[in-house]
Amino acid sequence: MVATxxxxxxxxxxxxxxxxxxxxxxxxxxxxxxxxxxPISPLKVFPLLLIPIALSxxxxxxxxxxxxxxxxxxRTSVSKLRPSRxxxxxxxxxxxxxxxxxxxxxxxxxxxxxxxxxxxDNYHPVSGRGSNLTWAGSIGYMITDSIxxxxxxxxxxxxxxxxxxxxxxxxxxxxxxxxxFETTIRVLGGLxxxxxxxxxxSPSNTPDPIYLERAVDLANRLLPAFDSPSGIPxxxxxxxxxxxxxDEENDGLASTAEVSTLQLELKYLTWLTGDNSYWKAxxxxxxxxxxxxxxxLAPTLISPTTGLFTASExxxxxxxxxxxxxxxKQYIQTNRTELVYRDMYDESMTAIHSTLVxxxxxxxxxxxxxxxxxxxxxxxxxxxxxxxxxQDQLVCYMAGLLMLxxxxxxxxxxxxxxxxxxxxFTDVDRRDWKLGEDLIRTCMATHDTVTGLPPEIAHFxxxxxxxxxxxxxxxDWYIKGLxxxxxPYDARYIxxxxxxxxxxxxxxxxxxxxxxxxxxxxxxxxxxxxxxxNGGYSGVINVDxxxxxxxxxxxxxxxxxxxxxxxxxFDDGDxxxxxxxxxxxxxxxxxxxxxxxxxxxxxx
Length: 604
Hints:
Blueprint: E1 2-3, H1 42-49, E2 59-63, E3 66-70, H2 96-117, E4 122-124, E5 129-131, H3 141-152, H4 156-168, E6 177-179, H5 180-198, H6 209-222, E7 236-238, E8 243-245, E9 254-255, H7 256-259, H8 263-273, H9 276-292, E10 301-302, H10 321-333, H11 339-355, E11 357-359, E12 366-368, E13 370-373, E14 385-388, E15 390-392, H12 397-407, H13 427-445, E16 457-460, H14 467-472, E17 477-478, H15 498-510, H16 513-529, E18 539-540, E19 550-551, H17 556-569, E20 581-583, E21 589-591
Antiparallel strand pairs: 1-14, 2-3, 4-5, 6-7, 7-8, 9-10, 11-12, 13-14, 15-16, 16-17, 18-19, 20-21
């Protein structure tokens, strides 16, 4: 199948309450305010217009339901006057038995890491050993990425040991090459989240200063990555030399996701320190993307030297995923003051709907396909793109993002715990919400394997499949390469969090029990096929072969995201509420804040 597309040419500061699994009493977030009343009928409002009094003291706003009369005393901003889409949100209560099961799984993973590899960047549970990202030594990859999960789950003893390691042993004087993106979202993001959450552990409600000290040290070492000719950051950084480098193994290019998923961390750091340099570096990225994009879809490779895209795949999975995520989340993080990010997000979602969304002919599973350039060369030379019916497991994050974006729009406040009232949706909201629901259904369908675990990549059936696919493949989706390789890449499962992340978001927004049920099903599959008896969890080589072998690595995101999102899925709904926090792409919660007016993005 070939498609033709247009080529690219150009706050609240209140702490978030946490409830540990131990049941200790810890301050938590206040209950969300009750929903706004239903809009007043135009028939009831019209007579008021005939009364010649106080017209200057009233503002009349139109909504789908009619007119609302607003007093100037409450007219702070349109965003604060949005009618709630939720009628009487119900309280989300914890499922304590399932939540505690997740805590026990986390302890099983963490205790093995502490025993065999404490302080190392990586853990290999099958062989029971640790390793570091470079020969230069550890940068606390595992500990910094996991410490906020220890705090959220109330694992105080484990937390105290991790905190002491960060205070006494963590060092960034490492003369080695580190990935700018991964170091930012995991290490810097983990330290900033720990800073935010540590206030709840202090009698004086003040954050532990050690985390911000370490975060500032790391961020100052990361900033030279932005000293490229274009402002697009170098993908590799030497933390000791404080110098950025091109990725020579990738022809001097960087992935779109890794250069455009740094802003939440840097902006929050500016808000904490008052140092504008972090914010300006982050904003420079978006300014560049705003200039070179017109149709909302970003190729997955970009040059830090020229600041231009190269002819490369367009997809929502690896190398492209979190670019779209951070558009919406930057808008949310700065209390919805930077409208340019919402505008860019909406442009991208429209392009995704019109270009990438496909449906299987038999089971009607909705998925997002990929666009591959039909020819190599400069981006402006590509006239045709081939539509490829495949979707990474990574794409499953998009389901929750779409649902969050559909509710948190310019026409309604964010509500929780009950199904949104569809008649209040705009057409765009309805479109995005439905796609989010449909993608969750598809992602759960890819769990229909022998192990109940999803493959890294799924291919989908089309009406124009070649004969061998039509003859051998299942009716809706299949794993490619099973007959050609002993250990097919597509068939592996590496403890990814994206589906449970979307289940968590969907449950928080709707309270629909099915999302908890699906999350529990996933957790049980992980327990059965990924748990190492001696401690830790590993990936599996082939999701359709339970005895096909293990991948000897417990990714840090298994603790920072997969188990954390499962815990929050089964926890009370007022822990880390969406009205007060935004999660970075590694699952680290940051507070929503009101930025200084001189920092608010003004480019359109």
